[in-house]
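Morning. Coffee machine broken again, so started the prediction first thing and wrote up yesterday's gels while waiting. Chain of 139 residues, entered below exactly as on the submission form.
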Amino acid sequence: MTTKSNKPNVLFWIIGIIALLWNLMGVFAYLFQAYATEEMIAEMPPEQQAEMMIEHPSWLTALFALGVFGGFLGCIFYLARKKFAYYLFILSGISATIQQVYILMDIELNMYFMPIMIIIICIFLIWYSKKCTDEGILK
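Came back before lunch.
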């Protein structure tokens, strides 16, 4: 009789740390967008200034917050090996996907890379955390 080890491998930790850094960048982007002053915006290049001046619906900002903070907390729970990470990644993934699809409808084709990459990373984190839960790594 063989027993399956539920000890995480090196890839588990690499994915967790990279995902945490990725989501921290999202948290910083959200905080910058939410708390940027007019002086800070004035120092930006004209293209970024124009983006910051666009009035986004409040539900889109809420989805942004849920996406990045859900992903960040999901990474914390993931690194703590708690299966609640899976549910936080689902919340983050749904929020971020809706937000990015809305953004995709309003941007030029040459700007599609980042929104699509965000959706793919969300799907990967949901899938991988479910896989780790099924293997007993996340408890």
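The helical segments are 10-35, 38-42, 46-53, 58-79, 84-104, 113-134. Going to sketch it on the whiteboard this afternoon.
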